[in-house]
Amino acid sequence: MVEIDLQIPSAFDPFAEAKDSGAPGAKEYVHIRIQQRNGKKSLTTVQGLRKEFSYEKILKDLKKEFCCNGTVVQDKELGKVIQLQGDQRKNVSHFLISAGIVKKDQIKIHGF
Q1: Non-local CB neighbours of 82 within 8 Å, separated by 6+ positions
Q2: Which residues form the SUI1 domain (predicted)?
Q3: Strand pairing class (30-36; 70-75)
Q4: Using an 8 Å Cβ cutoff, are 49 and 32 in contact?
Q5: How far is it, in rounded angstroms, from Cα 110 to Cα 112?
Q6: What secondary structure letter does DSSP report for 15?
Q7: 20 to 30 A from 36, CA-CA: which of 5, 15, 29, 85?
Q8: Neighbouring-strand partners of residue 83
Q9: What is the rounded distance in angstroms from the CA atom of residue 108 to the CA atom of residue 65?
Q10: Which of 96, 100, 46 is nearest to 75 (CA)?
């Protein structure tokens, strides 16, 4: 009998190595988004912070700094997400950079 060497095709990800390495394009982003509620009300969400950080302490400082209310929500797909009342996108990005939590090139601001 003759043995045949078969290779079954699988989903090939050409960027898999780049994600695992510390390459410049493989960085984790912090996404700051705005969601429209009803009328003029809006909600700012912050996701993608590293798990080592205490979300509750960051939220406490954000609430005190910007005089707004907020909460930490546990999402199945996204993990922990910080929600703040109002349009705080620019304020949050400046706060995260000045506190040294993330670098400027790691922040993506979405909305409007």
Answers
A1: 45, 46, 47, 49, 55, 58, 59, 62, 70, 71, 72, 73
A2: 30-100
A3: unpaired
A4: no
A5: 7
A6: T
A7: 29
A8: 45, 71
A9: 21
A10: 46
User: Which residues sit opposite 79 in a β-bridge?
Assistant: 75
Buried residues in 4-33 as b, exposed as e (16+ CB within 10 A): eeeeeeeeeeeeeeeeeeeeeeeeeebebe
Give me the count of residues in the chain: 112
Tens digits of per-residue pLDDT, 33-67?
999 999 999 999 999 999 899 999 999 999 999 99
Q: Read off the pTM.
A: 0.73
Residues 6+ apart with CB under 8 A from 70: 59, 62, 63, 82, 83, 84, 85
Q: With beta carbons less than 8 A apart as the criterion, state whether 59 and 82 touch.
A: yes
